């Protein structure tokens, strides 16, 4: 593989192999190694990748088209296929580059949502934990992220809402949610109920309400995302789960009607 903007020649396909002296330096390293050993661990790797902060080298300002806030990623090419370079730390990017690099910093989930899937990716090039992302893999990740996206829903004021215990206790779902809730110490308790809005075409569906010590939108967004991911395998096509992490009348009603399935220890 040849760097499009220099004479550097690089390989797109795992240029090094882990040996006994290759110890993971990051969570992504450990996830890559685990996924290589056990294909069932690939989903765990993707989750860590989506939550990681990534560094993308950019072309020198003199070579880049446009100005201001615009940037042009530095690409490498192999067999006519362009590759985007990703590093999970600035130190690794600097180790790879032969000069002080320009770069942008992007969360993995944002990268998935904005990049053209026809552009292949290379993660941590030049390390024992290099990972190549092919076009089909990136497209699959984009579809998975779209399915997991938590959407805010506005219910018309005055809508009658029926709240009760689920017809069938969602024990498996509750167990799957337990680690998510435990990982966020701001969550005091959580409740699973069945709700139905008195609107045309609406069916009963699950709702999770939780009381939090901290009213922080970023924290709530992280909890919503992780709950959506954990709940997905337990919802049939077309099913949904509402998340209420505020002190709304509906959240308070759910907490009155059903017992908590989770309480923070300590």
**Whole-number radius of gyration?**
23 Å
Q: Describe the biggest sheet?
A: 5 strands, mixed
- Count of structural domains: 2
Mean pLDDT: 81
Strand content: 15-25%
Q: What class would the helix/strand composition place it in?
A: alpha+beta
Helical coverage, percent range: 25-40%
Strand segment tally: 12
- Order of adjacent strands in the largest pleated sheet: 1-3-4-6-7
Shape: elongated
SSE order in H/E notation?
A: EHHEEEHEHEEHEHEEHEHE
| Tally of helical runs | 8
Q: Could you name the ranges where pLDDT drops below 50 across 5 or more consecutive residues? A: 1-20, 62-69
Query: How far apart lie the N and C ends?
Result: 55 Å
What report would you give on this structure?
The chain is α+β, with helices and mostly antiparallel strands and 266 residues long. It is built from 8 helices and 12 strands. A 5-stranded mixed sheet has the order 1-3-4-6-7. Strands 8, 9, 10, 11 and 12 form a 5-stranded mixed sheet that branches. The longest helix is centred in the last third of the chain and has 15 residues, at 217-231. It is elongated and about 65 Å long. It starts with a strand and ends with a strand.
